Amino acid sequence: MSYDLLLFTHIASVILLLGVGAGSAFYKFMADRSGNLEVIVHTNKMVVLADWLFITPSAILQPLTGVLLMNMLNISIWTPWLLASIILYIFAGVLWLVAVYLQIRMKDMALEVQRKEETLGKEYFLFVKYWVILGIFSFLAMASVFVLMVFKP
Prior knowledge:
Membrane protein; 0% strand
């Protein structure tokens, strides 16, 4: 694979990862704030789907293309900016996995409440709070990785 194609794939996947993540977070946050159960159910379904279709492949492509670029450019894993990026990426990934678990649980909870014609309980909104906190820290970690990759301090 050529350097240009590899770099393009690496950059495109981070754009998808950060862009879809930020968009999904915004729509889910606004849907939950609306209190409209139909909107919440639909948005939860779409956020989970977007994670599987866009974020998961991007999250896999990032380290794969990163290692290939690292090898192609003969950059050591011990280079401080690269090592910091890897640590932050792993941190963001762990937070994201917990957030995905919560997303799936919230989707299931909302579907169950809709099926039973009830209202969302405190547990759902506690999960929302945790999800937002995890998302903020995960996004900041990924944004930091992006800054480190661009500026290589």
